[in-house]
Automatic annotation (TrEMBL), chains A, C:
The keyword NAD does not apply. Keywords: Cell cycle, Cell division, Chromosome partition, Cytoplasm. The keyword Ion transport does not apply. Transmembrane segments: none annotated. NCBIfam families: SMC-Scp complex subunit ScpB. Pfam families: SMC_ScpB. This is SMC-Scp complex subunit ScpB. Residues 178-209 are annotated as: Disordered. The lineage of its organism: Bacteria, Pseudomonadati, Pseudomonadota, Gammaproteobacteria, Alteromonadales. InterPro entries: ScpB_csome_segregation, WH-like_DNA-bd_sf, WH_DNA-bd_sf. PANTHER family: SEGREGATION AND CONDENSATION PROTEIN B (PTHR34298:SF2).
TrEMBL record, chain B:
It is found in: Cytoplasm. This is Segregation and condensation protein A. Keywords: Cell cycle, Cell division, Chromosome partition, Cytoplasm. The keyword Thylakoid does not apply. PANTHER family: SEGREGATION AND CONDENSATION PROTEIN A. Participates in chromosomal partition during cell division. May act via the formation of a condensin-like complex containing Smc and ScpB that pull DNA away from mid-cell into both cell halves. It comes from Salinimonas profundi. It holds the Pfam family SMC_ScpA. Component of a cohesin-like complex composed of ScpA, ScpB and the Smc homodimer, in which ScpA and ScpB bind to the head domain of Smc. The presence of the three proteins is required for the association of the complex with DNA.
Length: 209, 273, 209
């Protein structure tokens, strides 16, 4: 293990996060550019914290999202920066957003369960698009006839929406309230009452790495 | 609570649809709707729950006190209008119509004595579903408002100062692969010799004869004159082998005046010096 | 033309250069993100100069290249950053393995001798790849016309295959016997027609699994 001084470590972490094409976690940093160096957890954390502070007043920010740290433009500059790209950001249909919301809040969930809550069929196209965007993935199959796929959101979904974990999703409390109501409700065979707790844990659940 | 919910549907309604550029705020009170408009209205709803929620909000009813009679009547008007216009009505709308009809009829029936009146309310399940759907609808809206890459955030694409060579991961090789490769090479070599000798001998012999014809015992022929470019490499090799064979068999004689000098060929064996 | 204060201008220029996927000249900046603002040449130049200075001690630098300004990682970090890009080399071809096998069992051996056994030319690429992997090396030259290089395997080759010495290579004689037994094989001539010795053909590799 080679030695690296603090200034060099800071430069290396900064440059790595800058050139990487995806957010990088501390452990990913350790596996790649820091692999050859003796760096303590404390050192690495303090260097990253310092970088976050360094960039606070700047036009770009170092932020933590689900799968790690990344540099991104200052939120308030987005409208001005959008002229750099010809194409505007895609808009998503309500059907797609509602499906995504259900997968995000109720994961793991089957297509049938989504349809039950929404009251309409979920088109295969929506599932396909969300899968292709790598926002959702199949995390298992429900042990009921037909063994339907169980969907969950991915870290890429959280990254895209600048979230560190599912807990940061807006209106998470409302869902909690609903879920609690359901659990008290013994009579109504609800869409949620058949959810079990022994489902495979999706990767995108809040983590503390 | 989102803007949409805070604003009463009468004071600040959300346009249902845009028809020929004009916002269609409310379903006209008399049920006459131009067919194209109804189609758009239908498309603007994400299913029967969405339509029911719209009707409830429009009448400023509370979901929890779901006035089944009124809502059912309005819902049926929609469904009938859609059916009359022969619009392709999603099956879900008809299922909901049946649910509403069932609830209505159960409410009309005399209530059997029960300990828990609340649980027996036939509206309970529909109210629960409406509340649940409303939460999902809000959540979808909030996810949409969440900052996203490409719209609110631009990710940084950094360049490396100097061109970097990607680290190459060498393929794994098993010792068995080496042993088998050796075995195969040897196996093929045995077969190769066997086949080629016959073939090559023939063509070399043939070439030997032709070279013998080309050179004379009177004067020297330059060695390079025995090679022709149009034959390609294989032809040159055959010629070369033929010359070597001829020299070996002392049928021709090669002489060279000095290092790197031109080589000349003459018919006949080594001259007895 | 809107007004923009110096701090905002600096943030906007910084963010633009960070998120743009190409270097940007001053005029390109004016045409895009600065289009709506009244910015003098002097202001713009001084903001860029300030940014260049700001980043001087950092792991990322603002530099001017032919087509404009761009942020890039510190030159000296490039070798450390290269681990972020990894490429798997294709599996070795049969030609490569046979060449290696012949060098291992028949060392020291010339390229010509390998070609004689294999019946086809050995591409320079094969010798280069094996040399770069440090599995083979030139140990001398054969005293025949052209003084061809004599190849042998290295210690790294032995290490890779966990061999203490060449004597531990599975017995060649054993295979010679096998080879002789197999030489009646009718399939053999077809193998000879194979001239694609440079191309990977992993499927045709003999395996013992």
């Amino acid at each position: 293990m080679k030695r690296i001084n603090r200034a060099q470590l800071k430069q290396l972490v900064e440059a790595t996060l800058f050139v990487a094409d995806k957010p990088m976690s501390k452990s990913r940093l350790r596996e790649t550019t820091l692999a050859a160096f003796a760096v303590s957890d404390k050192q690495l954390s303090s260097v990253i914290e310092e970088l976050i502070l360094d960039y606070q007043p700047r036009g770009i920010q170092l932020v933590e999202v689900a799968s790690g740290y990344r540099f991104q433009s200052l939120d308030s500059l987005a409208p001005l920066l959008s002229v750099l790209w010809q194409e505007s950001a895609p808009k998503y249909s309500r059907a797609m957003l509602e499906t995504l919301a259900l997968i995000a809040y109720r994961q793991p969930i089957t297509r049938g369960e989504i349809e039950q809550v929404r009251g309409v069929a979920v088109s295969s196209n929506i599932i396909k698009t969300l899968t292709e965007r790598e926002w959702i993935k199949t995390v298992g199959h429900k042990e009921v006839p037909g063994r339907p796929a169980l969907y969950a959101t991915t870290k890429a979904f959280l990254d895209y929406f600048s979230l560190k974990s599912l807990a940061e999703l807006p209106s998470a409390e409302q869902f909690d309230v609903l879920a609690n109501q359901d659990s008290d409700d013994t009579e109504v065979p609800s869409a949620m009452s058949d959810r079990t707790n022994d489902k495979p844990e999706p990767e995108s659940l809040p983590t503390n790495e | 609570m989102s803007e949409f919910q805070d604003a009463g549907p009468v004071q600040q309604p959300l346009p249902l649809a845009f028809i020929h550029g004009q916002a269609l705020i409310e379903k006209p009170q008399d049920l006459y709707i131009p067919p194209e408009a109804l189609e758009v209205i239908l498309e603007s709803f994400e299913g029967p729950l969405d339509l029911l929620l719209y009707l409830i909000k429009k009448q400023k009813f509370d979901i929890t006190t779901l006035p089944v009679a009124q809502i059912t009547a309005q819902y049926m008007e929609y469904v009938e209008a859609m059916t009359a216009l022969k619009l392709e009505l999603a099956a879900e709308y008809l299922v909901m119509a049946a649910v509403l009809a069932e609830i209505k009829s159960r409410l009309l029936l005399p209530k059997p004595p029960s300990d828990n009146a609340e649980e027996d309310d036939p509206r309970a399940e529909l109210i629960r579903r409406l509340k649940e759907y409303e939460v999902v609808k809000d959540a979808a809206r909030e996810i949409d408002a969440q900052p996203r890459i490409g719209r609110d955030i631009y990710a940084v694409r950094g360049e490396v100062g100097q061109p970097v060579q990607p680290v190459k991961i060498d393929p794994d090789v098993a010792l068995d692969d080496i042993v088998h490769a050796f075995r195969n090479a040897m196996k093929r070599a045995a077969a190769f010799e066997h086949h080629t000798i016959e073939k090559e001998v023939l063509s070399t012999r043939e070439r030997m004869s032709r070279i013998m014809e080309q050179v004379s015992d009177e004067h020297y022929t330059p060695l390079d004159a025995l090679f022709t470019f149009d034959e390609g490499r294989a032809g040159c090799v055959v010629s070369f082998l033929a010359i070597l064979e001829l020299v070996k068999e002392q049928m021709i004689l090669c002489t060279q005046a000095g290092p790197y000098a031109r080589i000349y060929v003459k018919l006949g064996g080594y001259e007895e010096d």
